[in-house]
Amino acid sequence: MELREDTRYTYAVARIRALETRSLNLEKIQRIVDAGDASTAWRETAGWHLLPKGELSPENTQTDLEKFLIEEIRCTNNLFSSLSNDPELTNLFFLKYDFHNLKILLKISPESLDGMVNLGLVPIEKLKESVIERNFRELPKLLQESIREILELVKIDTNLLYGRLDMVDIILDKKMFDLIFRTLKRHPAPSCSFLNMLFQTEVDICNLNICRRFKRLRRNRDFLNEALLPGGKLALKFLLEKYENNEYAPLNEFINFQIATFKLQLNNLYESTIYTAFGLEPLVAFLKKREKDAKMIRMIILAKLQGLAPKAIWGEINTINE
Amino acid sequence: MIMAVNPTRMELLRLRKRLMLARRGHKLLRDKQDELLRHFLSLIKRWKDAREGVENGLVQGFGLFLRAFLVIPGYVLYESCIRPGVETVLSCSSRQITSVRLPQFSIEVKGDPIAYGFVNTTFSLDKAILSYLNLFQDLIKLAELEKAVILLAEEIKKTRRRVNALEYVLIPNLEETIKYIFMKLEEFERGNLVRLMKVKEIVRAH
Amino acid sequence: MDWGLILSILGGALAVGLAGIGSAIGVGLAGAAANGVLTEDPDKFGTMLLLVALPGTQGIYGFLTGFLVAIKVGLLTGKIPVISFSQGLSIFFACVPIMLAGWISAIHQGKVCAAGIAVAAKKPEATMKAMIYGVMVETYAVLGLLASIILLTGIKL
User: Fold this and answer.
1) Domain residue spans in chain C?
2) So what's the pLDDT on residue A1?
3) Using 50, 70 and 90 to split pLDDT, how confident is the model at A2?
4) Between A and C, how many CB-CB pairs are < 8 A?
5) B122, B125, B127, B129 alpha-carbon torsion, rounded to 10°
6) Of A11, A16, A20, the CB nearest to C32
7) Over the stretch A217-252, which tens digit does the pLDDT of each residue have?
8) Percentage of the residues of chain B whose pLDDT score is greater than 70
9) Which end of chain C is more exposed for a tag (fewer CB within 10 A), N or C?
10) Where does the V-ATPase proteolipid subunit C-like domain lie (chain C) (predicted)?
């Protein structure tokens, strides 16, 4: 019998369980949605915050909101990495911020740091400097090789395909998942299979969504082949074949079904962490839940600012939960 | 108003010529004004339709964009739209209606509007971007129509002022002056006649 | 050399030692979990106290067994009877139930209690239920202790 227990995480899991009581549930969301305006809705989120809750100023509510939520995510990330005993694995969850910053650096010649988020493994100033000077020795080992490869690819591709800026994003997204799966293989830990499942399912959902969008945008098969992410459970060949041989309606039906299946799997994966008393899994689930909550709060309050009625807001919430 | 002219036969002839000219000018301007109005009315109708189309399109585009804006994190949205994927070239020419030159714009869109990754963005953003791009043509058309309407309206105003000036000022003035000179001349004639009769009477009394 | 005495003492010592190790690990696990909760919610100290202490009992059982062995072989009074090799081996084996049951059950009880503490953090009203699960593990330590006592008393010196 293999006991998949990682008792190094006893403290962490108990602490996370205590923090989980703060997460949003349906009842809290209902209260936020039903609030009269944006500021009361913000007040209703009390208890969710790990940091002392700031007040939204009426003049620039939106920037305030984004700022507060980024700070909350930063706080969650710090907690997450401080509780983790496998930094190689937990760092994988912050890669997306580094790659986001890289995208901006590669897309425009960087002058200011606008639009970059300081949540990644590398502080944005340092990242910018190393990209400009093409010197990556200072960066974390995890990123060095990847960035070099990316720069090669982007240089070639932007020359070949003038104006196809989406290639930058596509290359970076692919490289990120590539890096994640490679790292997971290199660092075996009790929770690796969980993380593998998690990222795989995310990739699959992403790939299916890309297929549907491409069909709607009437893109060709070759471009789809470039855009699909590696590492999912659904073989790319299978997806491409489906894409080519089906019209929109049957493809959509297929994708809807598949996405529903994968989302269910993802949900089950998160729910299974409830039964994991020792291990990294509950921490990951907590991080993901916090991110989702932040997204939900942002959405509801911005919708309030735009004057959407509660019913319309529920409609939007349902579309992202679908 | 009677003009300050000498009531002479020469002047009368000159004024009569001017009156004829004014009447002909008036008629021509009248025709031009009618023509302009006709164009203006059809333009207004087209402008109204275009305006409505653009406004509806904007509302729709904004609604689509709002959905993307709510779902996609702010920093991702910024990154996705940081550089446009399309290049637009605006070329300008003109056409003529009566004496007015109206501008004509046309744009050419090159490249792929969807210049971002597909992992963190959603289809709602694609829809919003595409609807804005479609709207772009209409927007340019609307700008063209709106400018044409403004130019035509100006021209109509100017023409109407001229027509009115002719109709209510110059022509009546001329007519009145002509009448005055005519009467004055007759007056002179009658004075002469009386004087002649008086002279005749005096001569006869002797 | 008096092998009988040596074996008896070995049995008692291992009973105390192994059960103690188990308890230490168990309390350690539960304590770490409790600290995790305390970081976020210091008011929960009282509700978690029992859950943390629960895996500690095996150590006490082990100690009790060790004490009984000491009395049995007369180490406390100093009047040590002659113990044959087979008697010594019997005493050693009599200690085995609490030795093993105490050692392993304490570790697992520690895990159950740590999980129970996580439950207490999330749903304070379920603390007692979580504790019952912890106590269930205790049963086997108690059975081990009972077996050891019965066996010990049964051995005639």
Assistant:
1) 3-153
2) 28
3) very low
4) 58
5) -150
6) A11
7) 888 888 888 889 988 888 888 888 888 888 888 888
8) 100
9) N
10) 10-68, 93-151
Cα torsion angle, C94, C97, C98, C99, sign: positive
Q: If you ran DSSP here, which 8-state letter would residue A56 be given?
A: P
CATH code matching the domain that covers C3-153, chosen among 3.10.129.10, 2.40.110.10, 1.10.3720.10, 1.20.120.610 = 1.20.120.610
- The residue with tokens 């993380």 is A195
The answer to whether C33 and C55 have CB atoms below 8 angstroms apart is no
pLDDT per residue over C94-104, tens digit each? 999 999 999 99
Task: Give buried/exposed letters for B7-28 (b at 16+ CB in 10 A, else e).
Answer: beeebbeebeeebeebbeebee
pLDDT in tens, B102-112: 888 888 888 77
Give the pLDDT confidence of B6-50 residue by residue, as tens digits.
888 888 899 899 999 999 999 999 998 898 899 899 999 999 999
**Nearest-CB residue to B75 (from A115, A302, A316):** A115
User: What does the buried/exposed string (b/e) look like for C99-131 if buried means 16 or more CB atoms within 10 Å of the residue's CB?
Assistant: bbbbbbbbbbbbbbbbbbbbbbbbeeeebeebb
CA triple C90-C95-C96, angle to 5 deg: 100
- Closest to A44 measured CA to CA, from A321, A304, A292, A288: A304
Q: CA-CA distance, A299 to A228, in Å (whole number)?
A: 28
Query: Over 60: is that where the pLDDT of A157 sits?
Result: no
The Cα C26–Cα B149 span in angstroms is 87
How far apart are the CA of A107 and the nearest CA of chain C, in angstroms? 43
In chain B, what are the domains? 9-197 (1.10.287.3240)
Instruction: Indicate whether C1 pLDDT > 70.
Output: no
How many angstroms separate the CA of residue A25 from the nearest CA in chain C? Answer: 13
**What pLDDT does A152 receive?**
80
Q: Which one, of C97, C96, C100, C103, lies nearest residue C22 by Cα?
A: C103
Q: Which residues partner with B89 through β-bridges? A: B108
CB C18 within 8 A of CB C100: yes
Set of chain B residues whose Cβ sits within 8 Å of the Cβ of A64: none
**Chain A interface, mutation test: which of C38, C47, C107, C111, most A Cβ atoms within 10 Å?**
C111
Distance CA A150, CA A171 (A): 7
**C near A: at least 3 beta-carbon pairs less than 8 Å apart:** yes
C-beta separation of A99 from A176 below 8 A: yes
pTM to 2 decimals? 0.82
pLDDT grade for A3, boundaries at 50, 70 and 90: very low
CA nearest to A7 within chain C: C29
Looking at the predicted complex, does its ipTM rise above 0.90? no
